[in-house]
């Protein structure tokens, strides 16, 4: 009955777990929800007031398909400051979240049979969107190199059919940041083989300790005509539900994305765009510093608690807001019935026995991982992490 395309997809596992945890909580179960990929902070007053004013002023019409010019211009200015290159509003396509920016990009860039390299663990949606275009995701397993991207491993996967590389820094789910040397090496590969780079920097506002976020165009401005920058207001401004993100790319690509969007969703929400514009024009540094300081405190508290885990490797996140655990020692492929033989069963075990919702690594192309969001309140974090530690330590 359904299309072949329908068979290529199942629902997002991260969204599925987030919904399940919310449902259990609503039923009164004391579940700690570590599954959501969003901040639990309130939003900045600046953004709130701009949106309220926008409603009162009657901004209830369709906007330009690809976003209001003022927002595209403000994003272009921000990108010019970040990359040191000139950007114009025409090179910015505003979308309903970065998810749509990535989807538009994939649909307008890839042909059936193209290959697209994705480092794993990856954000769950990348390969699904790529498969929907008929292209083939080709994975590079970073678990083999301590969850750090190795350009030689990427080079090995490049073929005649490779069209693009997807980079996500800071990475969801591992929190790894791609450092200048590796970015430079990957940029050189892209240049040498004429590849596109889809550069997802949705978590760039959340980088800790000595790590520094770098946009690939800061390292390799020569790649300008083949880079698509993907970003979002969901994480940086705690506006996940408002659905505003963007793709910044050469004009021919943003124009094609605009055509696609004109036949699918039309413009992103008008009020949300005005809120996003206020977020850029009246940058509320106190708000952002507070959010980052709270996340960093959660990160440090969490790392301290997770030190009590036995036989589980915890990746120290340099960015983003997730802990990523290698739980290979806790699953036994040969396990008898009733025992834990895979990651999904471990996730179920944690939900049933420790009342915590986490996301299993299969969602990220890794059969041995667990993702735990630390963008939650401190008391839930502390309580929930101890439950995870005790539950995992009890599995021998
Ligand atoms: N890219 C990455 C790496 C993400 O983690 C997410 C959301 O979790 C997105 C893109 C999509 O963000 P949104 O569509 O909410 O802007």
UniProtKB/TrEMBL annotation:
Q: Name one Pfam family in it.
A: Aminotran_1_2
Enzyme Commission numbers on file: 2.6.1.-
- Domain of life of the organism encoding this protein: Bacteria
An example Gene Ontology molecular-function term: transaminase activity
**UniProt keywords, alphabetically:** Aminotransferase, Pyridoxal phosphate, Transferase
Aminotransferase class I/classII large domain: residues covered: 30-387
Q: Which prosthetic group or cofactor does it need?
A: pyridoxal 5'-phosphate
Q: Which residues form a coiled coil?
A: none
Instruction: Give the UniProt family note.
Output: Belongs to the class-I pyridoxal-phosphate-dependent aminotransferase family.
Q: What is this protein called?
A: Aminotransferase
Q: Which organism is it from?
A: Chitiniphilus purpureus
């Amino acid at each position: 009955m359904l299309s072949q395309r329908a068979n290529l997809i199942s629902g997002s596992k991260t969204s599925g777990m987030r919904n399940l945890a919310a449902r259990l909580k609503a039923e009164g179960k004391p579940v700690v929800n570590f599954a959501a990929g969003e901040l639990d902070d309130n939003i900045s007053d600046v953004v709130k007031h701009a949106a309220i004013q926008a409603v009162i002023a009657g901004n209830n019409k369709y906007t330009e398909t690809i976003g209001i010019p003022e927002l595209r211009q403000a994003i272009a200015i921000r990108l010019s400051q970040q990359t040191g290159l000139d950007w114009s509003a025409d090179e910015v396509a505003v979308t309903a979240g970065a998810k749509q920016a990535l989807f538009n990009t994939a649909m307008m860039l890839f042909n059936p049979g193209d290959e697209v390299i994705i480092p794993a663990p990856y954000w769950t949606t990348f390969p699904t969107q790529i498969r929907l275009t008929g292209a083939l995701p080709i994975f590079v397993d970073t678990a083999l190199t301590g969850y750090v991207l190795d350009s030689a491993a990427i080079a090995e996967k490049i073929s005649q059919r490779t069209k693009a590389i997807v980079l996500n820094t800071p990475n969801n789910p591992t929190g790894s940041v791609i450092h200048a040397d590796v970015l430079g090496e990957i940029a050189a590969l892209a240049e040498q083989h004429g590849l596109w780079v889809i550069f997802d920097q949705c978590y760039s506002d959340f980088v800790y300790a000595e790590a520094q976020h770098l946009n690939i165009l800061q390292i390799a401005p020569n790649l300008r005509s083949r880079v698509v920058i993907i970003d979002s207001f969901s994480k940086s401004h705690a506006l996940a539900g408002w659905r505003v993100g963007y793709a910044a790319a050469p004009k021919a690509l943003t124009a094609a994305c605009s055509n696609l969007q004109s036949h699918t969703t039309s413009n992103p929400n008008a009020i949300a765009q005005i809120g996003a514009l206020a977020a850029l024009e009246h940058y509320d540094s106190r708000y952002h510093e507070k959010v980052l300081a709270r996340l960093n405190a959660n990160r440090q508290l969490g790392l301290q608690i997770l030190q009590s885990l036995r036989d589980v490797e915890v990746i120290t996140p340099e960015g983003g807001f997730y802990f990523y655990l290698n739980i290979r020692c806790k699953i036994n492929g040969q396990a008898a019935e009733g025992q834990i033989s895979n990651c999904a069963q471990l996730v179920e075990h944690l939900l049933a026995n420790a009342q915590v919702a986490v996301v299993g690594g299969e969602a990220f192309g890794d059969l041995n991982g667990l993702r735990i969001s630390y963008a939650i309140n401190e008391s839930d974090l502390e309580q929930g992490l101890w439950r995870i530690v005790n539950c995992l330590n009890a599995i021998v």
